[in-house]
Structures are given as C-alpha cells and as structure tokens.
Amino acid sequence: MKKTVLLSVILISFIAKSFSQKVSNEAIAQQVIQYKNDVRGPYKDIRWFCTDGSIRQPKDPCPDNIGPGVQHARYKDAVVSLGKSNHIYLGQILAYSDKVEFWDAENNQSRLKQYQIDKYLRAIDNGWINEKGQFYRGAIQSEDEEAWGIDFYKWLLTKDENLEKHYFLIRQSLKDIPHNGDDNLSQLMRSQSKVISDEFIQFMDLRVKIHGQPEASDIVKVIAFKNKYANQLSVNHKNKIDELVSTMQKFYKPIDIKSLVNKSSLFKNTPIGEKISNFIASHSSETKASLLIPDTAELLMAIRESILDEKRPMARLQLLDLSLKLEEIVFKTSPEWEPENLQQMLTKICYLGMATAGSGYIELSEWDQINLKTPGEKEESLTLETLTSVLENARSLVEWSSSMVKANYQHTVDVYTGFEPKAYGFIDDKIRGSIALYLGENVGELGDFIAKESSLTNKVMDIPNQSSFRGLNPGYAFGELVVVDGSPDDIEVHSDKIYIFQRPPADLKPIAGIATVSEGNMVSHVQLLARNLGIPNAALSDDNLKSLKKYSGQKVFYAVSNKGNIILKPEAKMNETERALFVKKERNEEKIEVPIENIRLTETNILNLRDVDASDSGKLCGPKAANLGQLKKMFPDKVVEGLVIPFGIFKEHMNQIMPNKDASYWTFLNIMFAKAERLRNEGVDETEIENYQLQELETLRKAIKEITLKPEFVAQLETDFKRILGEDLGKIPVFLRSDTNMEDLKDFTGAGLNLTLFNVSDRDKILDGIKAVWASPYTERSFKWRQKYLLNPENIFPSILVIPSVDVDYSGVLITKGISNGNEEDLTVAMSRGAGGAVDGQLAETYLVKINGGTQFLAPAREQTYNSLPETGGFLKKQATFETPILNQQNINEIRVLAKTIRKTLPKETQSDYDGAYDVELGFKDNKLWLFQIRPFVENKKALSSGYLESITPIIDKNKKISLSSKL
C-alpha cells in the first residue's frame, strides 16, 4: 500500500513538473512521429460527452433525460500536458474546445492559428499526426464540428471589436473551421500537387505552375502528364493525380452567380443587400473577366466597409462567406483577363488591388493611402514619373498584403517549424491562395514595362520577375552569395559574403552585402549601418528569393546604383572595371580614426544631464548624452532629467588590477591589441588574429561584468540619483544607454552596436547593468564592426546615459531628410507602438513628410506585439492590431515643427558647421512628444559619389510621356 501511494506521489510530481517545464522541440518532434504511427494518432479513446457534464462510454450514449450529447475522442495525456507546458495544441477537436479558450485572445489567437496550421499539415503530409489515426472511427464527428463552428462564429461576431481588429484573421479562419459545408478547394489543390511532386520529382514543374500561376488550362496539362509517364507512375501515384484532377475540375467549375442568392438571404432589405442583389442580377450570365472583376472588387470592398452596420452575427457570417465566394471569382477569372495595353493593365491592377483590400489583406486606412485610381477617360498619356508612382504604390500593396499574412501567422508558424519543418510552407500557401498572387504578377509586368521605358533595368542573374527588386542603399560588393529561406537569427554571418534574408537579423554583424524580403524599415539600426558604410542593400520578393536559392554558394558581384537599380551576376561575368574595384588595398586605407586628443579622463564625478551639451561630446561623454543635454537646453519640457556617467569613471575602474592577472583591465586590453598588431606584421592570417582577439575580449568582457564598483562611485550615484531624478536608486525604472566615443563620427554612425538596458528598476540590477554596459563594446559584433572601419579600435571609451523610463504609447525615428526621394527638405518618420520603436528593424509605420505640408504614406506597421514599460521594471509584451494608424495629424504637425526648429537652432546652439540631416529618436505619451536622442544622419558619400555606381545609374526623363494605348 505504501509503495502504491509513493508511486502515485512520484507520478503526480512528475506530471506537475512536466506541466511547468517546457518540452524541447526535439521531444515534440518525437511525439509527432509516435502519433503518425499510432492508429489513434494524438487521441487515447472515444467517449460520449453529455449536456450535464458527465462522460460516458462509447456504447453508452447520453440518455434523453439529461439532454443530447456529442461523441468524440479524448486527447492523450501527453497532448494535454503539451498544451499546458508549451501552449501547443495538437489535433484539436472543435467540439471538445471552449470558445473563449480556442479564440485565445491573450495569446494572439494562437490556438485558432494552430488549428489552421494543423489542417495544412494534414493536407500536405498524408494526415500528419493522424497519418494512421485519420481512420480512427468516431474520433471526430463532422456534423458536431460544423455545429460548433456555427456556434463559435455566432459568439465571435457579436462584438464589433473582433471584426474591427481581426477582420483578416476571422475571414481566413472561415476557410478552415467547418461551419457551412464548404471546402477550401484552392488549398487542397496546392497540397495535392505538392504531395505528388514530393514523391514523383518529374511533376515539380507542374507543381510550380499550379502554385505560382494557376489557371483552368492546368487540368489538361496534368492529364497529359499522367499519360506521358503512365509506365513510370505507380497505381498510388495515378490515383493521386486523378484526385488532383477531380479537385481542379471542382475548383475551376464556373461559379453560379445566381447561387449567391443562397448566401444573402439574411440581409435582403438592407443597403448592402440591395448591392448584392443588383450584382447577382447584372452578372448572372457574365463570363468576361474584364467586366466581372471590377464589379466583384467593388462589392468585396462594399461588404468590408458595411459589415459593422449589420449587427446580427449570423448575417455577418453570411456576408463573410459571400465575401469569400467573391474573392474566389476574382482569383479564378484573373488569368483570363489579359490586358493588351497600358490603360487596361492599370485598370486591372487597380481592381485587383481593391479586391485585395476588400478581402482584408490590408487595412481600410491603408487602402485610403494607396493611389491606384484608373486613368480618366480623357487622359491619353501619363508621365514616366506618374507611372512610376503608380508602380511604387502597387508594389507597396503587394508587400503590405504579404506582410499582413506574415504578421498574423509568422510567430505560430515559427513555433511549429521548430519541431515540424513542413509547417514553414504555411505562409507561402496562404499568400499563393490570395488575390495578391495575381496582383503581384501584374505589378511585375507593369514594372518590366516601366523598366524598358526608363532604362532602369535590373540585371539579377537569369531569374524571372526582376522588377520586384528595388535598391535601398547604394554600394557594391563581391563575395559568396548566401540565400537564407528561414529565420536569420541563428545564422553565423561573415564579412566577405552577400546575404539574402527573409527579414533583416536583429543583430547584424559585418557583411559585404544584403537583400531582404521584409526590409524592416528604412531607419532601423541595420539599415542605417548599411547606408553609412556603403553596404549594398535591396528589397526583393518571396519568389525572387526562391529563384536565387539555386545560386547560393556561388561567388557573385552585387551592386545597387544611386537610383536603386541592381546588378547581381556570377564572378565569371564581371568586367575589368568591376574586378578593379576589389584590388587589395592597404589595411588602413579609407578607415576612420576615433579622435581622443581632447578626451578628459580626469572627470570622475557623475554629471547632471542639464550640465552637459554638444561641446562635451567625445570629451566627457559620448554624443548620446551630450546631444540629449543640448536638447534639454533647447526643449526643456520634451526631454527627461538624467545623469551621465562620464568616460573618466569607466577609465578609473579599468585601471584596477584584473583578477588573476598581473595587469589592470586597461593594460590587458592594450596588450591584446599590441600583440595583434605584431602578429599582423609577422604575416599571420587575419582570421587567426581575429580569433585570438575575440578570445581575449571574451575574457575581458566577463571580467568587467564582475568588476568591483568603487564605493565612492556607488555613494555618489545614490546621492545624485535622488537629487536629480527625485527618487532613491532602485525606486524608479531607468534606461542605461551605452554612449561611446566611437559613435556619430563624421563618417561612422555606430548605431545600435552597444548595449542599452530597458527599464531597469532594481538597485542591484542597475549596478550590474552599469558593468554590463561598460562590457558591451567588447562583444564580438561591436568589435567586428569597429575593427573593420576604425583605425584605432583600442581607444574606445564608454560613458553611460541614465534616464528615467517613459512608457510611451508609440516611438520611433525621425530623419530630417527624405530618404526615399533624397530631398533634403523633406522628413522621414518611422513609428512603432510601444517603447524602442523602429530602431530594431520592426515593420514600422513610415511616412515621407513634406516640410511645407502634406505626407506620403510609405509603409504600415506590421508588428503584433510591442514593448510596454511597467513601473516595476523590465518590459511587458502587449498585443497590437493594425486597424488604425499609429500617428495622428497632430503628431505629424508637431514633428514637422520640431524638425524646423532643429535645423534652424541646433547648428547655432552648438556653434557647428554641420549642415547635414539629423537622426532623432522620439516618442509620444498621451500625444505629448518626448525626445530621447539626436545624432547626425551619416551617409556613405563614397558610395553615393562612386564613379562606377554613377556609370550604372541611368539618366531618367521623368517628364517623358507614355501613351496609355501603348502595347505591353
């Protein structure tokens, strides 16, 4: 008996522990394999679940006197445990789910998204975790799942807020959650073709066609393929091809527009009901795509704009279902509309864009900013400049719609990809099942047409759709091409290679060149470093990245011109001029020297931010503190109070003897640099020298993190913290910002290379944070950047700016220059929700602000989480939605006034001859503007003025007239 009790206690303890500890991806992957080979999959048994809450055996149905029940499987204990430990829910049964828990609002609707990913994996992987369990009779009852789906949407669509904030997600979920008997034939067609090509490689070309440019004529091609390979195909393969043909025939069966009446029965006498009735009456026999698509797109938009006027949840559900049918009409008929001239192409792009917006792939406020109106009846031509603007807007719409899919699903897909790599294809499948697929195709054709007219043609290997490339920063590079079709964060990069990423990595080390699908935003630290250092940088499409994968590992030449056209070609095709660009130079040529002749290391007292200004930069402290002190003088109500820990205090601590060494920290550092120079003079390989330095720096960095802070310094910090910030040390949260003398030099920005600690509250954490900030210039990333571009990287001194946290509603960056158009008078503003916005490559809301009035919307925000700064310290991740813009007109007007003041006053106040643009970090709290940093906006003049880059930049006649009747 005692033994049984003991075993029970051990088992309960083990289960409790497993619930609290996350299961590794490797262990989950093993679970998945087990379930694939289990005849019950992730389920352990089948039970009746009665209305009164009782559970009964499969052969013992719920009796009539307690009401009806439902029969379905129960999850295995390990599946339940995984949900509690990792918030991963495998094999979800809807009838077994609570509506609120399934909507999972606290976790960005993770469970709903997991349900969709699970269905995708089952479609492409022979049932996935139910490979053998998909025939486990009684585990899932389709009629119960459908009844649950209807009940779920009745509940979900009652609240306006859900539709306002999650229109895209709710509409997408209707494709996967059973509620009316419809099938997602589009996804089934793609998944069936993928399964065939995975098993029979000769089918790959057809699969690519079906995924990339699907049309009804593909049915004939699939049948012809089966006949061609009849002797090589197994019976199983032939059956699968027959199933695909059957699916395609159902999918491409003309939609009976009259049948849409059945999906509009609940709102016949409403304004939107009348529009739907008129559409059905007018188009019941219409087959011409060029006439059908425009009216369908307008109705899609009308449904989206009016759905909140309809308050009945079942009527809302019917409107959404009708919207999906309308999207299907556009998707199916788009290939049939073949524009013959420019006028028709612009018209088609306009209505495909409208249909994309009406289908929820961008927000309505974003559609309002896109100018895709068709040319007027009396217009006969457009200037090249106007046409290019239309192209840029259309291209933006394609990018924004793709980023909407990624913003909603990427995190959940990344979680699943950790244990099931096939999940990574889910986002691509979603995009290819959308109208954006055809919109992108037509925008590419328009781009090719404009490229010919303007001579602004990309030359990127031999891949298709080259007009999707656009340059961000000018420069040129030579090195191995590395194409990364996944998360870039775990990739070890090298300074002599050129990288193609899905998105920019968070902490980019030196590289030769870069191109990304998701460019982040044009004022992130990564983009500013690339711009500053002349690293060629471009944006491309998902399809472009896939096309380039076959060249990964090859040596290539890469150049982005001053106007943004791009060259990417194999080493063998480089001409003599291009080869001459990479003739080995002397080591110190074109490097920058950190000035130290005026540094004052004798100042070992903490400084009040009010007592420093721009003249102290590089002398007492770095430019962050010096310039913020200057801003405090100029805008006292827009800058917080602060303390500055000067260079001298750092140096004083570095003069202490290093533990287990016979020298001080500072001497240890300089011995390392001296030895490295000696090895270099002896001809030792640079990689070996760098490895030696990085090992020594790691030793130094660890030692600095454990350095003993001088008692007199800690005492002064406590006194001045209370005197200047008004509270005892550790009672209010602060930012600790590294501020070195290597930042904001004339030709080197150093943006984001060293440590900033967010919202540190605890006293001991602040003290430890000071040491961590002092150690941060000796990280591998920081060292590699400055070693590559600085002559004297050993003479780096960090000061620290200590300022109280402001829990801003949104924050970001202002550049007092139009980056996208090069206009010195305009402004560039990028803003994200919460603290620390835009600087780390977030997909930020971005504007070109005209200094004398007017704005151009460049990009929407697409981050589903943001940083909030609680008074207790640290940060909380909060959820964001995209239905309303971040900045309001009052904010933009205030930014415009701020920029004018900075331009006019700052050079005068600092007695500086600097006449370039400024990089300003700012935020808003309750519509009040706060300033956090200002620095020169450093561009790479060499790249901008390079003779080679100038030679590949075509001269464009913006006023050239293009006839709208021009043949494509």
Automatic annotation (TrEMBL):
<dbReference type="InterPro" id="IPR002192">
    <property type="entry name" value="PPDK_AMP/ATP-bd"/>
</dbReference>
<comment type="pathway">
    <text>Carbohydrate biosynthesis; gluconeogenesis.</text>
</comment>
<keyword id="KW-0670">Pyruvate</keyword>
<dbReference type="InterPro" id="IPR013815">
    <property type="entry name" value="ATP_grasp_subdomain_1"/>
</dbReference>
<comment type="similarity">
    <text>Belongs to the PEP-utilizing enzyme family.</text>
</comment>
<comment type="function">
    <text>Catalyzes the phosphorylation of pyruvate to phosphoenolpyruvate.</text>
</comment>
<keyword id="KW-0067">ATP-binding</keyword>
<dbReference type="GO" id="GO:0046872">
    <property type="term" value="F:metal ion binding"/>
</dbReference>
<keyword id="KW-0418">Kinase</keyword>
<keyword id="KW-0808">Transferase</keyword>
<feature type="signal peptide">
    <location>
        <begin position="1"/>
        <end position="18"/>
    </location>
</feature>
<keyword id="KW-0479">Metal-binding</keyword>
<feature type="domain" description="Pyruvate phosphate dikinase AMP/ATP-binding">
    <location>
        <begin position="620"/>
        <end position="942"/>
    </location>
</feature>
<keyword id="KW-0732">Signal</keyword>
<dbReference type="InterPro" id="IPR006319">
    <property type="entry name" value="PEP_synth"/>
</dbReference>
<keyword id="KW-0547">Nucleotide-binding</keyword>
<keyword id="KW-0460">Magnesium</keyword>
<dbReference type="GO" id="GO:0008986">
    <property type="term" value="F:pyruvate, water dikinase activity"/>
</dbReference>
<protein>
    <recommendedName>
        <fullName>Phosphoenolpyruvate synthase</fullName>
        <ecNumber>2.7.9.2</ecNumber>
    </recommendedName>
</protein>
<dbReference type="Pfam" id="PF01326">
    <property type="entry name" value="PPDK_N"/>
</dbReference>
<dbReference type="GO" id="GO:0005524">
    <property type="term" value="F:ATP binding"/>
</dbReference>
